[in-house]
Amino acid sequence: MTQTRRHFLATSAAAAGVVTLLPFAARAATQSGDAFDTDAGPIIVHPVDHASIVLETPKGVIYVDPVGEPAQYSDFPAADLILITHEHGDHYNADTLAALAGDDVQIITNPAVFDMLPEALAAKASKIANGENTEFNGLPINAIPAYNTTEERKKFHPEGRDNGYILGFDGFRVYISGDTEDTPEMRGLTDISLAFVCMNLPFTMDSNAAASAVAEFKPAYVYPYHFRGKDGGTQDPQEFAKRVGTDVEVKFGDWY
Q1: How does residue 19 score in pLDDT terms, banded at 50, 70 and 90?
Q2: pTM reported for the whole predicted model
Q3: Which of 3, 16, 11, 8 is nearest to 251 (CA)?
């Protein structure tokens, strides 16, 4: 699979990095993603843009927060499952979703987005709220609270509305943060193999807070993503990586 890649320039070459191979991670045969070997089979991670991710997994192809031009997804297999974390335009777009949602796709959203879905999309969708569980093709999916804790940021992501997700593959748990700060629920995560953690201001958290949380719940691997911000709020993934420590391997994706 060949994709056109855009490069993000921060104070350093933030989106570029040397990947050190550890026991069950390897660079995919193509340069379009990283492959992680699990007991059930490989998971291939494809960064798309900002908060949008495509995961090729043993349980099917999973799109996370797909927005933007549908053509950005044309080189990927069609989605079997689409996860939506919340309603903001960089995570949910009804037109993009309609273009990507095939006849057999299943969509899982938080309740607020579910209530916004056009009728045709709602027929393919189900909702889970914070703390609730569901499954797709035998894959357990848990909704993890995603919210702001800093007083002046609570207007962006109020507690109780938005979801992060844990995908429970056999022996390999994947955490997708959505938009959140370093909440007690994030810091209390256990047995996470792969995490996607946001960091931008003023909407989520800075790289210090993100690194501190990751160092506490210690996933085996973490992708910093969703790191472009507003009015100087863009965060540097390389600085995040320096602060995480040596217990977690930081992976760099071409998000921008």
Answers
A1: very low
A2: 0.88
A3: 16
